[in-house]
Design goal:
single chain, mainly beta, 9 strands, 0% helix, globular
Length: 100
Amino acid sequence: MSELKAGQRLKSGVCDAEVMVIKAGGGEALTCGGVPMTAGGNDGGAETDAVQMEGCQIGKRYVNDDGSLEVLCVKPGQGSLAADGNALAIKGSKTLPSAD
């Protein structure tokens, strides 16, 4: 797979999930359900990993452990997102300062 770039849209080959890359740090291999995500979403007959079928939620941002990769889920699916074999976590929201 080619290097990820900000603004790139990727589709899962095993479910309906689609993501947009917000921030790409390195040469991470982005997967959904254990199968690499591509621009066309073709799975090539690959088998899913049952452990990685927990789903992804529309409108949520997912990040890796060090924050170098961030993707936005634009279409939900049954597969879980991972980069280089490590599951991506939902990015928490920032608290706004109070206006007293």
